[in-house]
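Hello forum,

I keep getting stuck at the same step: I have a sequence, I want structure tokens, and every attempt I make locally crashes halfway through. Rather than fight my setup again tonight, could one of you with a working pipeline run this one for me? It's a single chain of 391 residues.
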Amino acid sequence: MLLLGASCTRSQDFDNQVGSIVQPYRLSIAGWELKTLSSDIKGPSKSSNVEDESGIVIEYFSLAQRIRSLKSQIEVGSKGEGAPTTLKTELEELEAQKTDLEGAVERIISKQITEILAEQGIYNPIDKYVGLKIDFPPIYFKLEEPPDVLVISPRDRIDRISDILLQPNTSLQEEVDIEARVDKLGVSSLVVPLGGLATYPSFVADDYGLKFAIDTVVHEWVHQYLTFEPLGFLYLLDATGISRNYEAATIDETVADMVGQEISTMVYKKYYPELESNDAQTANPKLDLFNQQMREIRKMVDNYLAQGQTDKAEQYMEAQRQYLASKGYYIRKLNQAYFAFYGTYADSPTSISPIGSELKELRNKSASLKDFLATASAITSRQALQTALKN
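Reply #2:
Ran it on my machine without issues. Output:
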């Protein structure tokens, strides 16, 4: 786990230069792990025994939503005449209430997900060999703001060659400065906010709503589960920079997305039916248009880069970024690093990889989610994926 913050090895000189730029902002995973584990060893919070478990969870995320709204109001006020003292007082009170519920909410969600996984016959990576019905790895996460990640790609191609974790409180101006200094080394860089991170315990953001949080908890757990399988092990080598494997990374991330969404939907329907009906997704023509536009941009960028027209590709991306902004879709920075990061998810609009549709086909052909996960966990390349589909 300590290796998760490592960056890819390119050249010692390049690594040293990047390291000197990010050093003041770099997150120490080891320090965070020690702090978190020592805090949890002290015992459960005073809210550990509750009768209405789902109600406690809903209350927690209602508080998180209100806190987010208050912070926005205070931020706007700080640029004008100043935020009213009453808002700051209310914010402090709500944050204290949320903190009191945090430990209980983490345990409730963990239990609910574990129960759904058991219903699907998913227990641990070695169950298929020995029939051991033990939950492993145990679902363990912290509702805490995840770090940002500095993604580095070459300019002449889209390739995620280095990821470096940054402290979550890094300001926007500091991120822009980091990117500018790293870009001067002849690469493309972007600081990306994360919704979750598969350390152990996992980081999971709580300010995007309950459905997002549950989905992220499962997503990160699948990464942990797969670490004990061929696919996940190769992804671990990729994430630590020991041995880059973009195909394995794309398959792993996409499998985690698919399993996460499927399990989280089951959790939501069983334990939060009143919210599930309110949050039912409807067709979104604007989102479909955005997704289509992003795929076209990606194809054009790949075409320019394949012809060696790096400058033209970058000019095109900036022009498209401005065009999207004029249509109400704001992207702070659209470059090779942006596509390198989001393109890892084969089911995202920024990916042109066929892996996403092929994994969906594999899921449709699988008898169950358990069977899909068992098959996918052994797939380490697109060729192996195509072989699995034929078989």
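The first strand starts at residue 141 and ends at 143. If your local run keeps crashing, start a new thread with the error log.
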